[in-house]
Specification:
By secondary structure, the protein is an alpha/beta fold. The chain has two domains: 162 residues, D-Maltodextrin-Binding Protein, domain 2 (3-Layer(aba) Sandwich), CATH 3.40.190; 98 residues, 3-Layer(aba) Sandwich (D-Maltodextrin-Binding Protein, domain 2). Helix content is 44%, strand content 19%. The chain has a six-stranded mixed sheet, with helices on both faces. The chain has a five-stranded mixed sheet with strand order 7-6-8-5-9. Helix 2 crosses helix 9, helix 4 crosses helix 11 and helix 6 crosses helix 11. The longest helix is centred in the N-terminal third of the chain and has 22 residues. The termini are far apart.
Length: 324
């Protein structure tokens, strides 16, 4: 039987077009790898394991967390950038790796929405402006006045150059028009220890751990960095309420996939993510690190990533921040 070549070609093209849809309908057929671009044991790792375990129960496949540390998160991030875009390799991305690193690490030659497919926001983590209990200020206005009276005399700690705590403090100094000295530490624990010991004056810390010190009377919180007050310390004003106009420095976290991942696959992962974020048990676990769930669409995630990249980029250029 002779087959019309034109008809055969059309049939073949139709079959090829249908393949991605068929693949998406069957997704997932095997384990999904969730890459954390930092070592085990930190806050990023903890968040990934909470989300991975919960999504395993929803999406129909095991989500395996894999830690790929190096270069401030660049190594693991780039491994996902170059992975096959089939939905089986995902990335836990946050403000540090996606909004800050592209501006301070020459090796971070990637763009969060051009070289990746945004899947969905997980949460945002606001910080608290915490001061040593003996610092003679009672509010943000008083702190700004003291800093202007003694330019460069006040010091702030961060958990490292280019980290969220560093950027939050730099944004505060920029918006308030003050000069404060940066003392970088290897992690938030040592930074808080020196704040309590009076060796530094202030820091921007994660709210739950900061709250423990504040409740014990060892430090004072002057403001929180999010757009809304924290449920953990509702008596503390936001930075904008305290008079620092335009200030907001919550760190955003989300899932990303390699660029070109099929839309149907992204939709399935997004749906599973939003389902687990609605679970009170998951919300309770995330709250340990001060995370506020922010479920939404991939499009909403993409807009948040672009805004984050632009905001931190402008600050980094203005403050001439570099990582050596």
């Amino acid at each position: 039987m002779k087959i019309n070549r034109r008809i055969f070609g059309l049939m073949a093209a139709a079959m090829m077009t249908a393949l991605p849809a068929i693949a998406a309908a069957e997704y997932p057929e095997r384990n999904i790898t969730l890459v954390v671009p930092f070592p085990p044991g930190g806050g990023n790792d903890a968040m990934a394991r909470i989300i991975g375990d919960a999504m395993t129960r929803v999406i129909g496949a095991t989500v395996v967390v894999e830690n790929k540390a190096g270069a401030g998160g660049v190594v693991g991030t780039q491994s996902v950038q170059h992975a096959k875009p089939d939905g089986y390799t995902l990335l836990l991305g946050h403000s540090g790796t996606m909004g800050i690193n592209p501006h301070v690490y020459p090796a971070a030659a990637y763009h969060p929405t051009k070289d990746f497919t945004p899947v969905g926001l997980i949460s945002e983590i606001p910080l608290a402006l915490v001061v040593n209990k003996d610092l003679p200020v009672q509010d943000v206005a008083g702190l700004i006045a003291l800093a202007k009276e003694k330019p460069g005399a006040l010091s702030y700690a961060s958990s490292g150059v280019g980290t969220g705590s560093h950027m939050a403090a730099e944004l505060f100094a920029h918006n308030a028009g003050i000069e404060i000295a940066h003392i970088p530490y290897r992690g938030s624990g040592p930074a808080m220890t020196d704040l309590l010991g009076g060796r530094i004056d202030l820091l921007f810390g994660v709210i739950p751990s900061s709250h423990a010190q504040i409740a014990a009377g060892k430090a004072r919180a002057l403001a929180v960095t999010g757009a809304e007050r924290s449920a953990t310390m509702s008596e503390v004003p936001t930075m904008q309420e305290a008079g620092v106009e335009g200030y907001e420095a919550a760190l955003i976290y989300g899932l990303l996939a390699p660029a070109g991942t099929p839309e149907d696959v992204v939709a399935k992962v997004n749906g599973a993510l939003n389902t687990v974020l609605a679970d009170p048990a998951v919300q309770e676990k995330l709250a340990v690190d001060g995370s506020v769930p922010r479920p939404g669409t991939p499009e909403y995630h993409g807009k948040a990533l672009d805004a984050d990249l632009e905001k931190w980029g402008a600050l980094i250029r203005d403050a001439k921040i570099e990582i050596h």
